[in-house]
Amino acid sequence: MRIVIVGAGAVGSHLAERLSIEAQDVVVIDNDPYIVDQLQSSLDILAIQGNGASPSILEAAGIDKAELLIAVTSNDAVNVLACHAAARLGVPRKIARVEDSALRDELQILGVDVVIDPEEQLAKDLLLLVTEGGISEHATFGGGSLSLIGGFVQKGAPLSHMSLEQLRAQVTEWDWLVTAIIRGGDPFVARGESIVEEGDHVLIATKTDLVEELAPLLGITIVKAKRVMIFGAGRLARITANLLCENGISVTMISKNEDSIRLASDQCQGVVVVLGDPMDPDLLRSEGVDRVDDVLALTRFDEVNVVASLVAKGLGAKNAIARYHRLDYVRVLNETRVDSGVSSRLSAANAILRFVRRGRVHSVVTFQDSNLEAIELQVDPSSNSIGKTLADIGLPKSTIVAGIIRANKTIIPRGDTTITPGDHVVAIALPDAVSTVEKTFS
After folding, report:
1. Using CA atoms, how far apart are residues 64 and 24, in angstroms rounded to an integer?
2. Distance between CA atoms of 263 and 403, rounded to whole angstroms?
3. CB atoms inside a 10 Å sphere around CB 423
């Protein structure tokens, strides 16, 4: 599939990298010659310098052969104009990143099929993490009935130092499945013989109503936050603060940017706003950082977010979540006392990738510290998998079926689970197995 991406910032470059690994035909357009040269030399893609809203530049990118255009520059108007131009040139599907809510009402007329707002989605993800403190990821599938939770295995956790086969033997009835383990930045799909170690980042599939019971396996106690401190006062921080307040959570916001603090004071009713440096230990002490449940470091600067999180943890904050832009910082986050990392680019990728996938894909989730992907897709009536057990289908070792939603019933599968027409299958896969998963159930 030819995919044209307009904008090679954090979101566009991440999508280009991910899609090129899967051997998609990717063309990226950006005004910055340095970024264009970098992408052209590092990825198996075509990179073009120019204005992605220009019909002549789009034609140079082979837009007549494209099935999808993704416009994700930092400029809403450019993204909308790029989609409009692509629509006139016959591209069947167009996705635009649009942050200004006032622009969204008439976008379909201008050729935009799907609108994404990474920061709005990330704020919702942060609310989920804050209400389930200790969990590093929580994605839901099947309308919310199946959960995939992530967490770091704590010292003395019941899950550690034994094989998954041994662990299951000790549990008479289990409605959960360890699907993947990330160790030292290297992900692998879990099997019965896999042994979980302290410090591993583990992804577990379970019925959503059992999440709270399951967390202790990782040595985690879920605590809903009552007080949160946010570092930064940019758009993401403001959206998140308002969302937390709407859910009854007390919020203090700290930023040294006077203009942003003034804007937050106007837009965030009920939030305590403080002008100051979030890396200043004396300021954090005076604002009671030791009494908050979660610290959310959401500034535009990765280094500030990491340092401020570490200072807050050192002063007694129970849980620290840092926003990052550079993916190569993720391992640094995992090896420090920062409890979790979040990223706008991953939120955007999750929103976009299901439009790239073939077949009847309902949801796609990517993860902060690995190239694992979770895909929810509906089994096609003509699929060769129907009537076969998961063991008989013989999926690659780099993928695992984490759950099946069948007629409003959530199933945590075993090898003898049989696929039936209309099943929603949730699979965890590494990039080399994604296309196989799609073909198997499509």
Report:
1. 16
2. 44
3. 22
* Nearest CA-CA partner of 36 in 48, 19, 51: 48
Strand 361-366 vs strand 373-378: parallel, antiparallel, or unpaired?
antiparallel
Helix (H), strand (E) at residue 36: helix 33-42
> Alpha-carbon torsion 240, 245, 249, 255, what sign?
positive
* Site of tokens 């790029």: 82
Angle of helix 235-246 versus helix 258-267 axis, rounded to 10 = 30
Q: Print the SS3 string covering 360-429.
A: CEEEEEECCCCCCEEEEEECCCCCCCCCCEHHHHCCCCCEEEEEEEECCEEECCCCCCECCCCCEEEEEE
Structure token pair of residue 152: 């770091």
Within 8 A by CB and 6+ apart from 320, the residues are 294, 295, 297, 309, 310, 312, 313, 337, 338, 339, 340
Tokens of 178: 């360890």
pLDDT of 224-282, one tens digit each? 889 999 999 999 999 999 999 999 999 999 999 999 999 999 999 999 999 999 999 99
Question: What's the CA gap between 421 and 406, in Å, rounded?
Answer: 9
Taking the CA atoms of 257, 261, 264 and 266 in sequence, report the sign of the dihedral they define. Answer: negative
For strands 294-297 and 319-323, give the pairing. Answer: parallel
Cβ count near 196 (within 10 Å): 23
Radius of gyration of the chain, Cα coordinates, nearest whole angstrom: 22
Structure tokens at 236: 């993401």
- pLDDT tens, 155-208? 888 878 878 887 777 665 678 888 999 887 788 888 888 888 888 888 999 998
Tokens read off for 339: 């409890």
Task: Say which DSSP state 439 is in.
Answer: H
Distance CA 305, CA 278 (A): 9
Contacts of 3 (CB under 8 A, 6+ apart): 19, 24, 25, 26, 27, 66, 67, 68, 69, 70, 356
